[in-house]
Design a protein that fits this description.
By secondary structure, the protein is an alpha+beta fold. 31% of the residues lie in helices and 23% in strands. It has 3 domains: 19-190, Immunoglobulin-like (Sandwich), CATH 2.60.40.10; 211-303, Sandwich (Immunoglobulin-like), CATH 2.60.40; 385-589, Rossmann fold (3-Layer(aba) Sandwich). Strands 1, 3, 4, 7 and 8 form a 5-stranded mixed beta sheet that branches. Strands 2-6-5-9-10 form a 5-stranded antiparallel beta sheet.
């Protein structure tokens, strides 16, 4: 028993020494690919650049993927001896993300660290670090290799390995980082470790007074004088460049929108504006915010008091009202009977003029052959699967409108919606193109949301050797452009073979134009949403809206009725916000040209 206790004390005393070993971190270094292949000194843990890949394989990899290529161990190290790339190693452990300093206040920079696994460490040849934006098409990748003749002992599993910085990450966004151990075998699932993290918000990094989206008025004062209601609030700091604001008040299902444009020459700290057309005796919940996309809103309450108007009417007026009421009812009844008689006579004259016998109309009305409601066919065991493709180039408001459309279709149109925004982890692990290719193959229908950004083609980046070392992780739309081209090829191939094109559809919101439909998709059916929701439902379920003697009744999917549903109201509001954002973007682009 004493021996066990002594052993426990020795282990406890030795634990800090182990902790010191864990602090040891290995950073990537510059070394040539020839040094890695020959196993020379000074190339223990090396970063691979696009120039190395071009030198070894004779072609440039995609810029956003850096030096990451399929089967990097076989391609770069296994030419002379394929056996060194045939053993598997376990996935890395303790993957961590650390934020580092960056001068740009609009983005974050991270460094990823991890520890190798004990299992298979003797066959470890390197690591591949892949970074993917959740719900987007942005990605970046880095590759690091050991010398081909290196064999690490199990004690190196306590070493911490680090990546190069990943710069240019959007603030307030979610990302998935995946660290793979090389070599990657064909039939092995535990060769990588994924971790989801969020970048800091602008307020967390720079302070609220430096961020447009995170700033909101802190001091609000409401005054009422008669029917006039005045709201006073503090203005944003001039450095933020906020020139306009908006206010939105809710009560009894109605909304009152007020656009606010202060005059900075009069007062640079506070501004007052009027709330008009508010009902007396009503309590309103109001919001005020900067007129910026996704800006934080400040909530305040406005209680509109009753305004007393003159004294009570004299008592002599009461009998007069009692006498006028029966007289008014009698006059109204006479007018109603006269109008009914006039309408009946007009219908008879029109029937006589058209040479239609009244008896035939009467027989038709009494025969009970009115249009019947066609029930939805129930021969389908599972609901149809619909893949929605879109472009994120038009901004977050457009992406939000697409997401709300997917919510409405899935909740109220008996359809299973597939959207990359809802399957971010799979997109991050598979890669955007691989995920879209699989969904295009497996889904029953594909709906492309056409917008101005869908036809945008990114400019090719400038060739700069320095950019090969640190991959800029910025916004790109290569994925959406490639997906549309892929769908266009599928459509063209099906058209050439005389196959059915009903699997593919194109749609636009009200703020988009016909010219936004890509040339590749002009052959397929296209719809204007939310006007054509019923047509889209008919397409998805293969039912006719009208046929002789029948019509298809779809509750709450008409152009007027869909807003009665919570999901429909959210879709309508998202489309409105996207329309405002698109108009502002176009106005800024026109001003920039001037």
């Amino acid at each position: 028993m004493w021996k066990a206790f002594l052993l426990y004390q020795l282990l406890a005393l030795g634990q800090p020494l182990w902790a010191q070993d864990d602090v040891t971190a290995v950073s990537p270094q510059d070394c040539s690919l020839d040094c890695i292949r020959q196993g020379g000194p000074g190339c223990d843990y090396c970063r691979i650049t696009r120039s190395d890949v071009k030198k070894a394989l004779g072609f440039n990899s995609i810029k956003a993927f850096g030096s990451c290529i399929p089967w990097p161990c076989f391609e770069l190290l296994g030419v002379e001896d394929p056996k060194i790339c045939q053993h598997y190693v376990q996935a890395p452990n303790d993957v961590k993300v650390k934020f580092v300093k960056e001068k740009n206040p609009k983005s974050d920079t991270i460094v990823v660290s991890w520890k190798p696994s004990y299992y298979g460490i003797a066959f470890l040849r390197g690591f591949q670090v892949f970074l993917q934006a959740l719900g987007g098409s942005s990605f970046a990748c880095q590759l690091f290799l050991f010398p081909r003749n290196l064999s690490l002992p199990a004690s190196h599993a306590r070493m911490v390995y680090k990546s190069d910085p990943f710069p240019g990450l959007s603030l307030g966004s979610q990302y998935a980082v995946t660290v793979m151990a090389l070599p990657v075998p064909e039939e092995w699932e535990r060769f990588y470790h994924s971790k989801i993290f969020s970048t800091r918000s602008c307020a967390e990094k720079n302070g609220m007074e430096q961020c447009k989206k995170d700033w909101y008025p802190k001091h609000i004062e409401v005054q009422q004088e008669g029917t006039a209601i005045t709201v006073t609030f503090n203005l944003a700091p001039p450095d933020l460049g906020i020139r306009s604001y908006f206010s939105l008040c809710y009560a009894n299902g109605e909304k009152k929108y007020t656009e606010i444009t202060p005059n900075a020459n009069k007062n640079k700290t506070h501004h007052s504006y009027q709330l008009n057309d508010l009902e007396e005796g009503t309590n309103y919940t109001c919001e005020i915010a900067a007129n910026e996309v996704d800006a934080v809103r400040k909530t305040f309450n406005v209680q509109v008091l009753h305004i007393k108007k003159g004294g009570s009417p004299p008592a002599s007026s009461a009998p007069s009202l009692a006498l006028l009421l029966p007289l008014g009812l009698a006059v109204g009844a006479i007018l109603i009977f006269s109008l009914a008689a006039l309408t009946r006579r007009r219908s008879r004259l029109q029937t006589k003029k058209l040479d239609i016998k009244p008896d035939i109309l009467k027989q038709h009305q009494e025969s009970g052959t009115q249009e019947e409601v066609t029930p939805l066919p129930r021969n389908r065991v599972t609901p149809p699967r619909l893949l929605i493709c879109y472009s994120s180039y038009d901004g977050p408001a457009h992406v939000k409108a697409v997401m709300q459309l997917g919510v409405f279709i899935q909740q109220h149109m008996a359809t299973q919606v597939v959207l990359d925004l809802w399957d971010s982890l799979s997109v991050a692990e598979e890669g955007s193109m691989a995920w879209h290719c699989r969904q295009i193959r497996d889904c029953d229908f594909i709906l492309v949301m056409c917008s101005r950004g869908l036809n945008h083609r990114p400019k090719p980046p400038h060739k700069d050797e320095e950019e090969d070392r640190l991959l800029s992780f910025g916004s790109n739309i290569f994925s959406s452009v490639a997906v549309v081209q892929l769908i266009g090829e599928e459509v063209g191939r099906a058209k050439a073979r005389g196959q059915d094109l009903s699997k593919y559809m194109a749609a636009m919101f009200e703020y988009c134009e016909e010219t936004d439909i890509p040339t590749e998709l002009r052959l397929v059916s296209h719809y204007r949403l939310t006007r054509d929701l019923q047509l889209l439902f008919s397409h998805l379920h293969g039912v006719a809206l009208h046929r002789p003697g029948h019509y298809l009744q779809i509750n709450n999917i008409s152009e007027e009725g869909f807003t009665q549903l919570p999901a429909g109201a959210a879709l309508q509001w998202a489309i409105y916000e996207a329309q405002m954002a698109m108009s502002e973007k176009r106005q800024h682009s026109m001003e920039g040209r001037d």
